[in-house]
Amino acid sequence: MQRKYPYNALKKQKKSYSGKKKTHTFKVQAIIHYKTQQILSLCMSKGAVHDFELFKRNLHLIPKDSFVLADKGYQGIYDI
């Protein structure tokens, strides 16, 4: 017998469900000032979102002429 779920319940699940990991995911990205240890940006997202996409969402919070240290997930960072 097949269970019937309300449409809203299924739609809500899709927002945080990662098909690759076969689980619900929640990603948090923090951008911190190296010397002062002050949090410049804190970005959160449900589901499968690329690291660089989260970075671009909060790009305006990073001071100009800043040195950014990041891994390979941020290729193309110096182009923007």
Characterize the structure shown:
With 80 residues, the chain is an alpha+beta fold. 21% of the residues lie in helices and 24% in strands. Strands 1-2 form a two-stranded antiparallel ribbon. The longest helix has 10 residues, at 7-16. It starts with 6 loop residues before the first helix and ends in a 23-residue tail after the last helix.
The total strand number stands at 4
Query: Order of strands across the biggest sheet?
Result: 1-2
SSE class: alpha+beta
Share of helix among residues?
10-25%
- Largest sheet properties: 2 strands, antiparallel
The N- and C-terminal alpha carbons lie at a distance of 53 Å
Q: How large is the share of residues in beta strands?
A: 15-25%
Order of helices and strands: HEEEEH
Mean pLDDT: 76
Break the fold down into its secondary structure elements and pairings.
Elements: H1 7-16, E1 17-18, E2 23-24, E3 26-32, E4 39-46, H2 51-57
Antiparallel strand pairs: 1-2, 3-4
Structure described in brief:
With 80 residues, the chain is an alpha+beta fold.
Primary descriptors:
elongated, 2 helices, two-stranded antiparallel ribbon, 21% helix, two-stranded antiparallel sheet, single chain, alpha+beta, 80 residues, 4 strands
